[in-house]
Amino acid sequence: MRTHSIRLFFMCCLFLNFSCIDYGPIEEEEFSVGSGLFITNEGNFMYGNASLSFYDPETRIVQNEVFARANGMKLGDVAQSMVIRDGIGWVVVNNSGVIFAINMDTFKEVGRITGFTSPRYMHFLSDEKAYVTQIWDPRIYIVNPKTYQITGYVETDMDFESGSTEQMVQYGKYVYTNCWSYQNRILKIDTETDEVVDELVIGIQPTSLVMDKYNKIWTITDGGYEGSPYGYEAPSLYCIDAELFKVDRSFKFNLGDWPSEVQLNGARDTIYWINKSIWAMDVTANRVPVRPFLEERNTLYYGLTVNPVNSEVYVADAIDYVQPGVVLRYSPQGELLDEFRVGIIPGAFCWR
Q1: Nearest to 270 by CA among 198, 201, 194, 212
Q2: Which helix (H) or strand (E) holds 6?
């Protein structure tokens, strides 16, 4: 689940057992697709109705439930993220505690990794080593994608009650990750020793992480929420020098804003984020723009991505968190090019 909806039931989730999904039989279909965009639809927490959609920008055809249709079973409970490596797609299903490996030509499952607490994101270090971040578990899991096994952990000094790690970027041999829930840190991990070697304290609850063309790390904090035991403050956008591991620039928002989803264009020279509307800014800028890239218009912007080839912007509208969501496709100038229905709560994207 994304940071937008997770806060609605965060406290109660600490005491729940994670659901055991019944991967029941569904009639299988045979099909294949080319290049395009995958959409991971979270589904509703504890309902087991997560799904995977695929959109072809050339034909403007969207196919929904492609995992279920190819494998004859549901994806599970809360599809969090997806990454592709060497023709295999890795779909992280958060509350089901599983990562599915699927063939990118057929969407058929070729393996799965289980045994997680609540996985969030996967970052490859080699063909035989990857990190998997967790929420409600301070450890970063080390896995071997070849054998589909958990092989170890990167330990942190966070408590199990509040410790978590989220998205990851890499600079040289170091991986950086943001600590979101009830945290205010960016961790620096030596991938040769699998140890945290440094940390940077920033604002409350950094929600996302990207690295621009100048090796500057960007993250955005949500500031917590009113009444939070960890604190409540105005959120901020941070630019961090990866080499020096210190804040280069920061931009403060208004108290009560809820910014999220920092993304980069293909050239990695422009960042985008959600703060009710969609905002865009050159990575060299010293102030945030006055006007948004896309105005909020009775929408619930929830997910965001930018086509790495042509810089078209795709925005997920969760609508009401119950009915199937909509993805809106815009030109780099903000002209609406297409819109299409996907699954319930479209939250993350993966380009093929």
Answers
A1: 212
A2: helix 3-6
Query: What phi and psi values does residue 337 have, to the nearest 5 degrees?
Result: -105, -30
- Cα separation of 197 and 187, whole Å? 8
What are the b/e assignments for 299-316, b being 16+ CB within 10 Å? bbbbbbbbbeeebbbbbb
| Cα dist from 9 to 134, 240, 281, whole Å | 17, 31, 33
Please give the single-letter amino acid code of residue 265: N
Distinct helix (H) and strand (E) counts, the chain: 3, 27
Full-model pTM: 0.92
Q: For 16, which DSSP code?
A: S
> Which amino acid, 20?
C
Closest CA to 115 of 91, 83, 143, 155: 143
Residue 12 three-state SS: helix
Handedness of CA 254, 311, 167, 325 (dihedral sign): positive
Q: Both tokens of residue 268?
A: 């990695």
E strands along 86-226, which residues?
88-93, 98-103, 109-114, 119-126, 129-134, 140-144, 149-154, 168-171, 174-179, 185-190, 195-201, 206-211, 216-221
Q: In what order do the strands lie in the sheet with 195-201?
A: 168-171, 174-179, 185-190, 195-201
CA dist 26 to 112, 159, 346, Å?
19, 40, 22
With CA atoms as reference, report the closest residue to 288 among 238, 342, 226: 238
The one-character DSSP state at 8 is T
Per-block mean pLDDT, blocks of 10 residues, the chain (352 long): 45 35 52 83 95 97 96 97 97 97 95 97 98 96 98 94 92 97 95 98 96 98 93 97 98 96 97 98 97 93 97 97 97 97 98 94
Quick check: helix, strand or coil at residue 141?
Answer: strand
